[in-house]
Structure formats: structure tokens, C-alpha cells
# Entry
Amino acid sequence: MASSLRFGIIGCGGIARKFATCIHHVEGAELLAVASATPGKGEAFAKEFGVETGYSDYTQLVSRDDIDAVYVATTHNFHYDNVTLALDHGKHVLCEKPITVAAWEAEELIAMARGKKLFMMEGMWTRFLPAICQVREWLDAGQIGELRQIKADFGFNAPFDPDGRMFNKTLAGGALLDAGIYPVSLANMIAGPPAAIEGIADIGSTGVDEQSFYLLRYESGVIASLSASVRAPIEIVAHIIGNEGRITIPRFLAATTVELTRFSTRETIRREFPIADGQGFEYEIQEVVDCIAQGKLESDIMPLDETLSIMRTMDTIRGKLGLVYDNDKR
# Structure
């Protein structure tokens, strides 16, 4: 492999633009090619970002010998097929969240990556932000005492478009898979897999959840109250509450600030972690580069077993909400 990890991107939407912007901040990584299933879109994307080649065929990209890793940035209903294609061509994979629509798909991809001895990681980019790293340090140091509750909400008001990815059932749209994955993943990072799960949702006219709430209970007695919406700009904040203190993460999705409050002293410690270009994808890209350079097949921060555990939690929530997508019918 070359001294730099050479990436290709599959899918040229908004999330791919963040990746293409941030990769320039990563030492040891370069972007060689992009591909979009929409004719001309890959070529236009490549020109805009100064990338060598743009394709309208994913197979052309993954067939290149000079591409080491593929970032899958398509909508999640296509992740299973796109990741399979990349792995079949011997490429390491960073796949946008959620890694798949259903847990069985994630399980098969993980087995495939491990069998081929290729690196794979779910692109839960927030997990690698310096602010979230600080949160893990505080938790590991017992700064809030015994964990009792987790509260996290993420929502926005997307323009209603029945054919767009947010509301299209064929594209596995809806609040849970697009937005809810963030609070669910955060809760899993903090407390692990839940022992009991409940969910409630407002199912819109297109058959997807426009807003949904999830209540998770853990064997330790910890309770997580989580929510997501694509029809309301709810406050994006997370609270991690212990018996001795509280951690608050304003805008935890792209956290630049974290606060630790100790109940005994009423003192609040505030830490600031600015993000270059306001994007923040460079931290997960750096993790991929470092892991592959060290010969690792997965990340210790976002391990594949945890990705699978999160997908199983998401499956259970979808069952509670009555959400069935085309991927479930394969």
C-alpha cells in the first residue's frame, strides 16, 4: 500500500461533501476518485473538489488497484449492496451511519469484512470528536459518580418531500434511521446494550416515522430517554446524569463544548473544542488511517460488535414502531 491511504467515495451527496472537505486536514490520506449513480454528478463533484476522477459507475471506482479504501456515502438502504461491492473488490470500508437498515445486513457485512481481513468501520463521526473524547475521559474517571440517566434529542424541520430520502419509505426514510441513530449510538457508547426497549412514533402520510421517542432501560438500572424528529427543530442536547454530577453536551451531534457539573460544589467546568471548517469529519478519517497503518481490522472506539449491537437495538425499536422497509424483505 502507498504511504498515503488512498480513498474513493461512493455517493456524492451532502455528507460526501463534508468528507471531501475534511480529508485535506488528514495527514496520510488522499482522495483519488468519486462515483455517483446519477449520470454526470460524480464528474461534477470531482471537478468541484479537485479530485482526479469522477465516475457514474461504482464498479469502475472499486476496480481501481490504486484505491485502498472506500467511503460509502449513499443513503442507508443502499449500504449493504455498496459495502458488499467494495469488500468483494478488496477495499477497506468506512460506511456512513447507520451501517445498514437491518441488523442481519450488518451481521453479514461484518462477517464478510472479517473473513476477507479487511478494515471496516461505521462512520459515526461524532464518536471521534475531541469533545466526545473528553466526555469518555470524564466518565472513565468517575466524575459524575454512579450513572443514572441519559437524555438525548436530535431533530430538525426538513422540507416535506415524499420522494426525498427523509420521507421516502422505499429509501428507508424517517426520523429513527436518519436522526435517531445519533442518540441511540451515544447511549450505547455510555451504557452499552439495553435490557428493555420501548418506542412510540408519529407515522406520517408516507409511512415513515416523522418523530419518534425511545425509552431504554439497562441492567444497572440506568434509563435513557431519547428522541428524534425530521419535522421539528427540537433542541439538540444530551445530558448524562449520575448521582454525583452531570455532563451536558450542547449540540452533541457536532459537539464543540462540554460541561461537567459537580452537585456537591455546584461548580461547572466548561471545555471548548473548536472544529476546523465546522465539519469535523477529519477525526474519523484519521482513525481509519491510523487503524489501517497499525494493521487493525476495526476501531477500538467504534468496534464492529458495538455497531451490530446498535443495529439490533434499532431493529427492536423499529419493531415497536411498526416500521418495515424493503431491506427487511430480501
Q: What stands out?
A: The chain has nine helices and 14 strands.
